[in-house]
Amino acid sequence: MTFAMSIDQELDGMPVGTQGMEFSILAEYEVMATTAAGDDRVTTRFVEVEAEPLLQDAMDMMIGLEVNQTISPRGEIRDGSFALPSDLDPTLATMLDQMAERMDDLAAPLPLGPVGVGATWSHSATTDLGGYEATMVTT
Fold first, then answer.
1. Of 19, 44, 73, 117, which cross-links 67 as Cys (Cβ 3.0–4.6 Å)?
2. Is the pTM of this model over 0.85?
């Protein structure tokens, strides 16, 4: 997965600036079970991360972490949680717990109807992540 993010900052309603960042995560997925409704119980383990130098140390802490999720056939996240080691930095643990609570808000489900060959679609979702408003646009 490769992520390109931009953060627009405001102070008292006045634009302060925009920051951009990119990072990539290599992950292994394993479908643990499938429900009668077709939802998959999936475990994801982060294997490798690549980020800009300022982010690399923080992103390296993600290596080896596991996420357990239930995902619908359309890609909707029904639930999710991180399997966190007991010695994980408390700040990162809190951030990941907050992220797990919001995973379903930021998921980009597939369209309800069929699309044509070469078609594209876009999904936008906004949620609160630890006091910050986060909007994810997936195309």
1. 44
2. no
User: If pLDDT is split at 50, 70 and 90, which confidence band does 69 have?
Assistant: very high
Rounded distance between C-alpha atoms, residue 68 and residue 80, angstroms: 5
In contact, 68 and 41? CB cutoff 8 Å = yes
Evaluate if residue 34 carries a pLDDT over 90.
yes
Distance between CA atoms of residues 72 and 90, nearest Å: 31
> Which carries the bigger pLDDT value, residue 111 or residue 38?
38
Residue 125 CA to residue 138 CA, distance in Å, equals 9
